[in-house]
Amino acid sequence: MSQFKEKGNAAFKAEQWDKAILYYSESLEIDPESHIVLSNRAASYIKSGQYDLALVDADAVIKLKPEYHKGHGRKGAAYHAMLCYNEAIEAYKDGLECCPNEEHLLLGLAASKRARVVTSKANHAAEIGHRSKRHYRHKRHEAKRATTVSAFCKRTREEVQGQIQALQAQLTLLNELAGMTDEEKSDYLFNLIDKDGNGYIDASELAAILRKRNAELTFGESIIKAVRLVTAYDVDGDSRLDTEEFLTFLQSVTKEIQADFHEFIEFLVFKLIYEKDESQELDCKVNQADGDALDAS
Going from the N-terminus, what domains does the chain have, and what CATH number goes with each? Predict the structure, then answer.
């Protein structure tokens, strides 16, 4: 078995996915319950685009050894590659129940949540809104510089059309937010604040939002307040908030101010996307992180 496994590992490292699958399959004929080989073959299936077969192997790994985090990671990665982000998120969550704080699963979960946000209709509407705003402001500027009545009327009409499109996009965004679950809304807001896209909100990112919402706060005051907030809700003690801790934070805040959770999140998202921050608006685009790394170990 070891000989076939090593050949499979060598083929995997050489990016010869079909050969790797063949060698791992021969190894499994000798020992069909080797969770490591099954996991490696699942990784090869993912690399070769055979996601359904990868899911079969991943489930077999989880059944044989649920505490082996790579089985859950393979399952999440396969679903992510299939663009099934909800299923990927559930796979990573299941893995974290068996393997708490496993970094690869946390990264995979964060990546799938970001992908779900980036590909959402709400995010698409927000991007259309931004483009429409830039367009009609440009047309307004052109209208002011028009040298003929005809040119002025044409540019003004285009400006109004852009304003209508922007308003329609904003309404679509609000409607999409209204249809989201608490977790989905929280994730959407989370990704707006998580500017570096690392899957966590640290004190500096939270301080930037506090300064935006409270113009009278100095940089030092905002940092101190942000550190206190992060410390209060940082369950795992890593000095930053993950998506679960952030959701708890939001639920606590809405309870304290006696606000409806859904409406409060919609309000924050809308303000962060469309309000100006002195000379420019906050960018609503979210960086899509790489998925869970696959290896041959």
Answer: 2-100 (1.25.40.10), 121-281 (1.10.238.10)
